[in-house]
Design goal:
This protein is an alpha/beta fold. It has 14 helices and twelve strands. It has a four-stranded mixed β-sheet with strand order 1-9-8-5, with helices on both faces. It has a three-stranded parallel β-sheet with strand order 3-2-4, covered by helices on one side. The longest helix has 19 residues. It is globular. The two termini are about 25 Å apart. Bound molecules: pyridoxal-5'-phosphate (PLP).
Length: about 375
Amino acid sequence: MLGFQPPAIGEEEIAAVAETLRSGWLTTGPRAAELERRFAELVEAEHVLAVASGTAALHLALLAVGVEPGDEVITSPITWPATANVIVHAGAKPVFADVHDSDLNIDPEHVARLVTERTKAIMPVDLAGQPADLDPLLAHGIPVIEDAAHAAESYYRGRKVGSIAAATCFSLYATKNIAAGEGGLISTNDAAIAAAIENLRLMRRGDGSLYDIVVPGYKANLSDVLASIALVQLDKLEAHGEIRRRQFAAYDEGVADLDGIEPLARDPRDTHAYHLYVVRIDAEAAGGTRDEYQRLLAEENIATSIHFLPVHRLTAYRELFPDQPPLPVADKAGEEVLSLPLSPAHSDEDIADAVAALRRVHASLTR
Ligand SMILES: Cc1ncc(COP(=O)(O)O)c(C=O)c1O
């Protein structure tokens, strides 16, 4: 089976972990601090805070901008459920806006119609590595918490993702462009947001045996063991990105003449992070549904994935928030999206195999 998104981990990461274990410092320490410093340089932000996951990053960022029970937060339904879950964790109500048909990122015009006096934050998602259209969201003057789990290397209109929103949240999950297994990073240029997250993510004893806390904080810090993996992955970011860019080009060429199979749009004004290669499968033109394609590709030993099923259609959200307005673009996309194998751990031949299998499946369904 050709794996969907196997991690690209080498001897350097293994050596870094061994060195960290030998250092005697297992929890948050000098390597996490070094990761924050280096990531701040990468994303051109004043403050970066390392946390336990991308989910924790989003949760603490919402709390840091003051989201409370009774508030509303507008977000995209085409995301991993974590983006919406943290709104619920903060006691607020997720309000889903529909997405653009082209790139499946949140539609700012729909957002504008959903803003009320209870809206305390807007959470766009940079799906697959394509930045959301941030300027019209920022224009509301409401804190934007950007879910950049897919967008470590992205630029929006020439500005680095991570330096634009009130807080930008990245993930170090096993499949991500910087993969530590688990972990998250929050970047912000707002000292007050950074200070709030610092207090929330970990209770420290500080110096001496007497201690005090100013907020009842969480345990959401990043261990140095994981930070040491992320540091090596940062060294490899450019080389890995170049491999994924080549894989995108191979897929673009391979699907260009396939009726009913269309990759998500990439805006030439922006820099894409090439995190996921997502195609939409129009069942009528492609001769089969997304689910049929996924099954037939699995029979060809090609693993695929789905990014994403609309969050408002999942059981928890249907039960908690049954009065969802229709989101026709997201609903249709949820039935059509399919993500193809992509990873720096894959060779050019692996991707050629995936393209050939997709073309065989397409030929068998459209003949
Ligand atoms: C769009 C998106 N947001 C948030 C997350 C949550 O990140 P984590 O798994 O690090 O908690 C993920 C991925 O896992 C994601 O894909």
